[in-house]
């Protein structure tokens, strides 16, 4: 590779494709990667896919991915995540199945987004199979995966299953608590939601503003203003 090309390649890597905010810009950079022979650089390709999804573009990253000769689990995860984040649930689950057909196993970053896809598709059966696979592969103590399972069961209104997974999460964060609290409020169990919120505070977890507003509303609805004083 000529010195100029090497220098240009290093420049692209150093900027990590930051600031791509239009599909025109993304296509321009992709064309540059092809010219410079960087179309096999999974780091740059992954960034390209991510930025495409972040601006709401879904067709172009699918085209880019289809042209990648050697994929890896990182690229597959980016596609699954990007599609579900743009509410393209059918395409997201199709990518998951294609990933498995190509010999790749899911990891801790795959499961939460596939589970979110199942909620979007109202496909409880596939989500249940995901839970079985989580247990089989030993990801059941991964907080990211567990949070995905809690959200999955809460999304289908199975509060008992959601709470069972929640109870076994070793290190709970705000994302783990939120679906449980929200589901209790949704089904009218406001006292249980408030009790869960107290536990959250006792464990030193800082609530987000959305959950705080919902809890204060629950306190007002049950006429327990004193519980709203923390």
UniProtKB/TrEMBL annotation:
One of its GO terms (molecular function) is RNA binding. GO terms for biological process: RNA modification. Signal peptide: none annotated. Keywords: Repeat. It holds the Pfam family PPR_2. PPR repeats lie at residues 72-106, 173-207. The keyword Translocase does not apply. It comes from the Eukaryota. InterPro entries: PPR_At4g14850-like_plant (IPR046960), PPR_rpt (IPR002885), TPR-like_helical_dom_sf (IPR011990). This is Pentatricopeptide repeat-containing protein. It comes from Rhizophora mucronata (Asiatic mangrove).
